[in-house]
What we know:
This protein is α/β, with parallel strands linked by helices. The chain has helices spanning about 15-25, 55-70, 85-90, 125-130, 135-140, 145-165, 175-185; strands spanning about 5, 35-40, 70-75, 95, 100-105, 110, 190-195, 200-205, 210-215, 220-230, 230-240. It contains 7 helices and 11 strands.
Amino acid sequence: xxxxxxxxxxxxxxxxxxxxxxxxxxxxxxxxxxxxxxxxxxxxxxxxxxxxxxxxxxxxxxxxxxxxxxxxxxxxxxxxxxxxxxxxxxxxxxxxxxxxxxxxxxxxxxxxxxxxxxxxxxxxxxxxxxxxxxxxxxxxxxxxxxxxxxxxxxxxxxxxxxxxxxxxxxxxxxxxxxxxxxxxxxxxxxxxxxxxxxxxxxxxxxxxxxxxxxxxxxxxxxxxxxxxxxxxxxxxxxxxx
Length: 241
């Protein structure tokens, strides 16, 4: 049975075509999979598990159906949905996993990341990341009324878009030295992540041994997934109508 990886769907009420494409993916490619890993930025924003929007409920219900059919589902936080919690995971029949999780893919030990922690050249973003990943900051945000959190999420999205438009493209990509450092520390030669929206397979060497970093694409005009079966790893895409 195959193992699937997806990332950066950025599900939002304003993008119903992406939600429909995701549900089609669940009903076709994922329904016979052994495991499905969602590596962050699943939602375009997540303001707390108490957000009972119709989108959140519908997504949880569809994931629960897949889980009940026998597919294990794993969720990792991204830079847009780092407040996603155990309540939603339980409703979706999923398990939250930490960043820097290592998994065995048919004997191939592979490190999983969202990917934003690798973008160390973007010092402004890294400082912001450290702030919002603080448990105290998150507790303070979650204590605010839901309407205030929704407004804050909209403000952060607008700020992020404005800031990114002013940055050089290479600053927002991963730092290769950081990639090697993380992989060496985890004792792996294979890495899967998203975040950068630059789908590709990158081959390089670590301490004289062949290594590979596979980057998932974001769901926009195409859907992206990594398909792993015994003896085969593919980065695949398909058009979204």
